[in-house]
Design brief:
The chain is mainly α and 167 residues long. The protein is built from 8 helices and no strands.
């Protein structure tokens, strides 16, 4: 028994480091936000009713109580149902602000640009080989989609450079 207790700290230290989260969020903050949202909807019973009304499946009082006390994490579906019931979008605003800082949007933007540009090039090659009107129209449509994506990116980048923010 004593040897197990002596080696326990070493076992904990040997664990792999936690993965970096997409956005930093303290568990206590998340619990307080969930607790406040449950209180705004009218308490545990009202939260159960709101979630059941939204998704058609009952939620037990115990589940909501555990969420309220921080013993269970609130699910995204429950957040959405409670936000709709209260009109309070604190969770959505927090996630939006957190995503502005984590760099996820530029990565998604350049991947989307690459996808659209690749589709445009493939459609152009097909149009050059076949020469029929349908493939020509598809090539024009795909090229316009790629140009629109790039134009939107340029407009956003120009606006962020003018205001001094990073986007």
């Amino acid at each position: 028994m004593k040897t197990a207790l002596l080696h326990a700290p070493k076992v904990r230290a040997a664990r792999a480091p936690l993965k970096e989260k997409a956005f930093p969020m303290d568990k206590r903050l998340f619990m307080h936000m969930a607790r406040a949202t449950i209180a705004r909807v009218g308490g545990v019973d009202a939260a159960c009713a709101a979630i059941e009304a939204e998704y058609g499946e009952p939620v037990s009082r115990g589940t909501i109580s555990k969420i309220q006390n921080g013993h269970l994490d609130i699910t995204f579906a429950q957040v959405v149902a409670l936000q709709k019931a209260t009109g309070d979008i604190a969770f959505a605003n927090f996630l939006r602000r957190a995503n502005e800082h984590c760099g996820a949007v530029p990565a998604v933007t350049h991947v989307h640009t690459l996808k659209e540009a690749t589709e445009a090039v493939m459609a152009q090659a097909e149009a050059e080989q076949s020469g029929d009107a349908d493939s020509q129209l598809r090539a024009v449509k795909e090229t316009l989609e790629a140009v629109d994506i790039m134009r939107d990116w340029l407009a956003g980048k120009a606006a962020s450079l003018k205001t001094g923010t990073t986007a």
